[in-house]
What we know:
It is a single chain. The protein is an alpha+beta fold. It has nine helices and five strands; from the N terminus they run E-E-H-E-E-E-H-H-H-H-H-H-H-H. Strands 1, 2, 3, 4 and 5 form a five-stranded mixed beta sheet that branches.
Amino acid sequence: MEYLDLLGRTFSPQDTHNSPKVAVINESMARLFFPNGSAVGHRFAVGETPDHPGEIEVIGVVKDAKYMALDEGSLLAAYFPCTQNVGFYGSFAVRYAPGANRREIISRVRSSIADINPNILVDSVNSLDNHVNQSIATQSLIAQLTSFFGIIAVFLACIGTYGLLSYSVARRTSELGIRLALGAQSSMLLWLILRECLLLLVFGLAIGIPVSLVSTRILKSLLYELSPLDPMAISTAIIAVVVMTIAAAWLPARRATKISPIQALRAE
């Protein structure tokens, strides 16, 4: 096992059943029981009795970790060498190279354990990826549903923008035809329609951005080590809305440049 930011030392082959008992503890446990200075070298015991006062020596301190779920608080933890705590050897982790066949690894581990003691039953085999995915299943479902409804909202907004500008073009058919008859360029008509789209876009962003920033308090409890005010996420959302809105307005604006002045006047 690798320890991040280890203070002291980790376990070694010299930590056997006959050697003094040792342990590596996490920062939360060190702060609670040994608040004055380093915890390395101090002693403690599990279920301390007068016959065994402080029989376990702290040889290292590591950072706090997540053990069951990503949203859990800081837990007290102590790590013991298996050679000194056989009774705690109810579960263990096997590290293998990325890309290795997981089923083959499980089969080889079962065979190795059966060779040592055929009475030991190995069950509930799980990978670290599956364990993490299971612990955040609820958050993942909420994120997927939120993304789904967010995409639907953007799609409906694009349809609304397209319908509004299409109606505007149809209502101003005669006006656009007269402009063309008087020598207006197609690029001028294109900008005329797109300008309405940009005004709607600016108005929507002016309302939507403050509302979204205020509503981030609701999302804060669903995020892990990610700020709801993440500049990259907010910038990406704004860019996506701008691109989708302009794309929805392009067809009506393009149609305005194809209006025939004669047909426009006849329609009037």
